[in-house]
Amino acid sequence: MEDISDRVKELLDSQLKEWNLASVNYRLLANVRTREIDFNDFRLLVQFNPERIRSSAAKVDSKSIEERPCFLCEKNRPPEQTGVDFSDEMVILVNPFPIFSKHLTIPSEEHILQRIKNNFGKMLDLAKALPDFVIFYNGPECGASAPDHLHFQAGNRGFLSVEKDFEDKRLLTKVKSANHFEMWQWKHYLRGIISLRGSNVELLMKSFNDIYEGLSEIQQGKPEPMLNILAYFTDENWIVHIIPRKLHRPSQYFAEKEKKILLSPASVDLGGVLIVPREEDFEKITAEDIGDIFGQVCLDDSEIKKLTSYV
What is the Cβ-side half-sphere exposure of residue 24, based on CA atoms within 13 angstroms? Predict the structure, then answer.
C-alpha cells in the first residue's frame, strides 16, 4: 500500500492519454464555468457542468436499477478503463465524468449493495492511503447513482470549501474530546454536519457507529440511515465530515418551468461545490434557493445536536 499514491498518479496520466472519453472530458473541465455565492461567514461555489447530467438526473428507483447493467462491475466497464487494485477488495478507477481535476471512482470488486455500516473502515483506509484526496460516500438514497454496487469516490484536496472552513473553526463547536479524538458540530452553516478528527481509529469507528445507530432510530425502515460522508487524512489525523440527510431531492428538482432547479445534492454539493448540469440553473440559482434546498434535504442545528448525544 506504500506506493498506492504513485500508482494512482500513473493511472491518471495513462488513462488521460489512452482513453478518449476521459481525455476529452478532463480537457472540457478546464472550460467549466463557476461562480461564488457569498454567505458572509462562508462561500459556496456553483459549477455548471453539463456532463454531470448522468449523475444529477440518474434514475435510482428499483425498477430502473434492475433493468440496467451495473456500470461499476468489471464485465460492464469500458475496455479502455483500467484500474489499481486496493486491498484485494476494491479497485481505483478514473472517473470519466469529472467534477475535480483528479476524480476517482472506487468500487468493490464484488457486486454488493451500497452500504457504509461495515465499510467505514475501508473509507478510513482509503483516506490514509490517498492523502492528496478527499474520499466521499453517497448513501443509496443520498446521491449514489449506483445504489446496487458498493463504491466510494475521491477528488483532489483543496477543492471543497468545507476543508478550509473546518480549519477556520469559527462555525464549529467542539462537543467531545478524548484520547487523540475530537467531535465537532457545525452551526449556522445551512446544512447540519458532525465532524470527527483524530488518530484514534477505535474512537473514530465507535463514534461513527453511534451516530449511525442514532440516525437509524430516527429513520426506521430505510435501507440505511440517510447520510453523506467526506473523509481525508492530514497531519497524521483523519478528518471525517458526516452529513445526515432527511430527503434525497428537494422540491425544486421536481418543479416545472422557471421554478425547476436540477440540483440533486450529494457529498460534493454539501462539501461546498454545487454541481448544476443546466445553464439556466447556473445563471439563476441564488443564496436563498440554496438555503431552502439545504434546509429541505439536511438536518438543522438542533437535530444535529440531538444526534451528537448518542456518542
Answer: 4
Distance, CA of 153 to CA of 130 (rounded, Å): 12
Q: Where are the alpha helices (DSSP H) in the chain?
A: 4-18, 20-29, 53-56, 62-67, 120-129, 161-168, 201-218, 251-254, 267-270, 279-284, 287-297, 301-308
Grid cell listed for 101: 481535476
Is the separation of the CB atoms in 263 and 52 below 8 Å?
A: no
> Which grid coordinates belong to 85?
487494485
Which grid cell sits at 229? 460522508
Side chain identity at 209, as an amino acid letter?
N
What tens digit of pLDDT does each residue of 6-54 get? 999 999 999 999 999 999 999 999 889 999 999 999 999 999 988 876 5
The DSSP symbol for 118 reads T
Backbone angles phi, psi at 183, to 5 degrees: -125, 135
* 3-state SS class at 92: strand
Q: Are 8 and 93 in contact (CB under 8 A)?
A: no
- Scanning the structure block, which residue is given the C-alpha cell 488513462? 15
**Secondary structure (H, E, C), 207-224:** HHHHHHHHHHHHCCCCCC
The pLDDT tens digits of the residues spanning 285-305 come to 999 999 999 999 999 999 999
Task: State the virtual CA torsion across 255, 257, 259, 263 in degrees, nearest 10.
Answer: 60
